[in-house]
User: Fold this.
Amino acid sequence: MADRKIRVLLVDDHQVVRRGLRTFLEVQDDIEVVGEAGDGAEGVARAEELKPHVVLMDVKMPGMDGIDALRKLRELANPAKVLIVTSFTEQRTVVPALRAGASGYVYKDIDPEALAGAIRSVHAGHVLLQPEVAGALLSEDDAPSGTGRGGNLTEREREVLGLIADGRSNREIARALVLSEKTVKTHVSNILMKLDLSDRTQAALWAVRHGLAG
Assistant:
């Protein structure tokens, strides 16, 4: 059972916050907190050492902040999903975080059960894109537009892209479209190449901005 647990790394500069998160998450049967870090640089080092499935990353931290730490993890090709922790007053950080490769974000006042659900969701390959941010992206100049043209996408690729924007994992897309997961992975790779985007999170943002999200 232990090898099936979602391995989580907590990165936050407040020890009390980390302790509270650990206390709650450790009672979840399918989640294991494998480590903690007090700033972005330490978070990157611990992520490389511990190989977590999900990193719960604060945004504002001394030294290297959460977004710079996320960029560094992507430079290192670390496969961990990163769930950004932010507040309503820090909404301007959400788009840069998503562009940097975050799988989504949660607000600091999130209900504990919802937090556990968010961790499970990003671990399963979903993109957590809240409605208020999706709406803002429709007119957000900073949103990733991609240098490729959406007109080059096939009809099937547009269907796959729309489901990515809805937060579906490859497995769920395969089931919905009656395809193999291998075929879906090929479609996703083609979409990223044609739109000149780096990952499925940016693809989801592109789809929202161009009206392909459900």
About this structure: Strands lie at 6-11, 31-37, 54-58, 81-86, 104-107.
